[in-house]
Amino acid sequence: MIILPLPHILIFSLLLFAIGIYGALVRRNIIGILISIELMLNAANINLIAFSKYTSLAPETGQIFALFVIAIAATAAAVGLAIVLALYRVRKTVQADEVHLLKW
Amino acid sequence: MVTSDQILLVPLLPFLAFVVNILAGRWLKDRAAWLSIATSSAACGIALPVCWAVFQGAHFAHQGTWLMLGSTPLRFGYLMDPLSATLLFMVTVVGTLIQIYAAGYMHGDPRYSRFFAYVSLFMFAMLTLVISDNYLLFFMSWEIMGLCSYLLIGFYFEKLSAANASLKAFLTTRVGDVGFLLGFLTLFAALGTLNFSEMNTLLAGAHKTHFVLNTGLLATAALFIFCGTIGKSAQFPLHVWLPDAMEGPTPVSALIHAATMVAAGVFLVARSFTLFMAVPNILPVVTAIGTITAFMAAFIALTQNDIKRVLAYSTISQLGYMVTALGLSGLGAGTFHLITHAFFKALLFLGAGSVIHGTHVQDIREMGGLFKKMPHTAVTFIIASLALAGIPPLSGFWSKDEILLAAFGSGHFLVYGVLLLTAFMTAFYMFRLIFLTFFGAARNPGVHAHESPALMTVPLWCLATGSVLIGIPGSPFMHHWFQTFIAQMAHYPEYDPSAFVMACSIAVAVLGIALAGIMYLRQKHWAAAVAKTFPSFYRLSFNKFYFDEFYFAYVVKPFQSLGRALFRFDETVIDGTVNNAGRATLFVSAVKQWIDTYIVDGAVNFMGTAVYFFNSIVKRIQTGILQNYLLIVFVSVLAFLFFELKF
Predict the structure, then answer these.
(1) Contact assessment for residue B391 and residue B397, using Cβ atoms and an 8 Å cutoff
(2) Is residue B601 classed exposed, middle or buried when 0-12, 13-18 and 19+ CB atoms within 10 A define those classes?
(3) What pTM did the predictor assign?
(4) Which of A78-82, B262-266, B275-279, B522-526 has the lowest mean pLDDT?
(5) Distance of CA B348 to the CA centre of its chain
(6) Minimum distance, in Å, between the CA of residue A22 and any CA atom of chain B
(7) Nearest to B634 among A21, A102, A104 (CB)
(8) A-contacting residues of B 584-643, CB under 8 Å?
(9) Cβ of B625 and A103 within 8 Å?
(10) Is residue A24 less than 8 Å (CB to CB) from chain B?
């Protein structure tokens, strides 16, 4: 069985996180931003599992942590999509830079 | 039969008339007079049976506690003894007749109902005074009378002289009233009671019980109480208000300033008679004041030309007689003269009022020959003058003779001589008045005299009848019934009638009348010649002994300058202090306002401005664009991580 060494996994998750943060910062579509945030969360999950596998005496702790993050990410996505829908009904748009009501 | 509490209605009925007239006089108009007269007559109707019962020997008294002074109860009540019954009889009868007369005299006056309201209030006060049984109630009604006197003298207040006269009367009597107040308070301190009967019992029984009288305190009290008499009864030296009081309507002069209120001062001495008897050295003072007053006023009356002023001085003179009588321990004589004088002097004033009503002049030099035009007035006026001059068998003779007898019998020959001279002058000035007014030729063709209506002449005749008959109860024809009746009140010396005294008094009266007749009917140049022969006496009499001038220079002037000085003090010091305090407050508040505006408000506003200023810089990062915030968070996290890893 091929065991991936830890640095590979970390580099992978770093790339995934970088893609996520890039997407979150540059995408104009709010749904795209939400997807990018999911990417970042998943990058974090990979890190958690990787570290728990390679360093922890009890690997289950990291996995349980990841499960929680997934659950919360799901709820966050649900709430986020609901807000997007509500916003769309009012403003007829889902572009983030077109919605800047809450400014000075 | 009389129930004693009915007596309370006697003062209360006129009070009712006062209340109705003062509140509803506007609607009552002429009926105001009838209301006053009706209540007064009703009071008379109630009072006369009570008086009659007292004349028969009855004695009523009733008291109720008014308030407690510590443990000493202060009781108010009425007392019907010979003295108050006599006065009650006189006041109700004379008062009612004068009010009937006034209904005619005041007819057409714009303040008709107001006049009768005041008169009813006066009747209420006078009747309360007469039946009151203690000094406090006496003093209260005394003061109400003073108020009524003030209001009625100043009844024609549009006239400056009337307004001044009312003020003068009020202030002058006030001097005496303060004395009276102090007097009965001193008496209360000495005896612990203000009740007349209790006072008499204490003073009379002092030698039997172990009650020690403080004679000095009692003498002070008596002297102060006599001050009240001097003020109210216009005795020397406070007599100056009464002649000026003639500015009031003539019925008022008759009722208040001749028959009743001025007699209240004499009544006060009569009421306090046991007190005056109990302390030494006070009766000579009373005698002296009375004699001086009697002589001085008669002397002034010789030369006065205003018909009412002559009568006013005559009143002062006769009040002096009464005071002299009381000073000579002649309670009976003084009271007797009070009653007879009330009748004939009220009649004289009403007669004078009738003359004024008929001619519209008051100066006797403008009258003359009025006998034919005003027969009723003239005849009744002459009857009253004869009574005043002391011609038997008219009432004045009997009472004046009693006083002369008291002076003669007690051995005060100086007093007797002065009083006899006064009696001579009295006869002279009264008949000077009559001859100038009713006889001779009419001197002023502009005067169109006419007789007064029956409403006025009928009371004149009633009073004339009274003036003739009222002396009989004190005369030998009724065995001096009145003197015996009054003698129940106190023990004082009485003298047997003396033919010499009677003869002298008749002689001087006839002499005075004859001299007046010669001087003013036959030898008309004599009067001017006498004035020229004795210029200083004439000036003294004509200028009323310069009393007004003296008081003006030595009392009124100093008070005025004192008042001005106090006013100036008030204006500069007190007002100045107040104004400066105000100014200082204004200055302090201006400073405080500056501090408030620029420092307190400035600090607050500066805070706001500073916050606003920084806010305007900081708020730029709040763009509302979601990704800007995210970028900031990201960069910040990166920066923290960088620092975390580096250090």
Answers:
(1) yes
(2) exposed
(3) 0.76
(4) B522-526
(5) 20
(6) 10
(7) A21
(8) 619-620, 622-627, 630-631, 634
(9) yes
(10) yes
Report how far residue B296's alpha carbon sits from residue B65's, in angstroms, rounded to the nearest whole number: 45
Best A17, A19, A25 residue to mutate vs chain B (most B CBs within 10 Å): A25
- A101 Cβ under 8 Å from any chain B Cβ: yes
Domains of chain A and any CATH numbers: 6-91 (1.10.287.3510)
pLDDT band at B383 (very low <50, low <70, confident <90, very high): very high
Query: Are B619 and A104 an interchain contact pair (Cβ–Cβ within 8 Å)?
Result: yes
User: How large is the average pLDDT for residues B209-218?
Assistant: 72
Q: Supply the ipTM of this predicted assembly.
A: 0.85
Least confident of A23-27, A98-102, B326-330, B347-351: A98-102
Tell me if B627 and A26 make a contact (CB, 8 A cut-off): yes
Helix (H) or strand (E) holding B153: helix B135-153
Per the CB < 8 Å rule, is B627 touching A33?
Answer: yes
Q: Does A21 touch chain B (CB under 8 A)?
A: yes
Question: What is the reported pLDDT for B209?
Answer: 57
Task: Tell me: pLDDT of A22 over 90.
Answer: yes
From the list B620, B625, B634, the residue facing A96 with the nearest CB is B625
Q: Of residues B149 and B63, which shows the higher confidence score?
A: B149
* Tens-place pLDDT, residues B564-578: 999 999 999 999 999
Q: What is the pLDDT of residues B506-515, one digit of tens each?
A: 999 999 999 9
Average pLDDT, chain B: 88
Contact B624 A102 (CB under 8 A): yes
CB B241 within 8 A of CB B173: yes
Searching chain A, which residue's CA lies closest to the CA of residue B632? A25
What is the amino acid identity at position B481? Answer: W
Question: From the centroid of its chain, how far is CA A26?
Answer: 15
Q: Which residue of B has its CA nearest to A37?
A: B630
Q: What is the pLDDT of residue B207?
A: 60
Distances (CA, A) of B597 to B589, B590, B593, B594, B601: 12, 10, 6, 5, 5
Average pLDDT estimate for A83-99: 89
Q: Which residue has the tokens 């001619």?
A: B359
**Chain pair A-B, CB pairs under 8 angstroms:** 32
- What token pair was written down for B66? 């008014």
B637 closest CA partner among A34, A8, A27, A21: A21
Alpha-carbon torsion angle B335, B337, B340, B344, nearest 10: -140
- List the single residue in A with minimal CA-CA distance to B618: A104
Give the dihedral of Cα atoms B243, B438, B376, B356; nearest 10 deg: -40
**B623/A100 Cβ within 8 A:** yes
% of chain B residues with pLDDT over 90: 43
Per the CB < 8 Å rule, is B623 touching A103?
A: yes
**Do residues B79 and B132 lie in contact, with contact meaning Cβ atoms separated by under 8 Å?**
yes
Give the integer Cα–Cα distance in Å for B112 and B290: 37
Q: Please tell me which residue of chain A has the smallest CA distance to B628.
A: A25
Contact B328, B412 (CB under 8 A): yes
DSSP structural state of residue B4: G
CB contact under 8 A, B626 and A33: yes
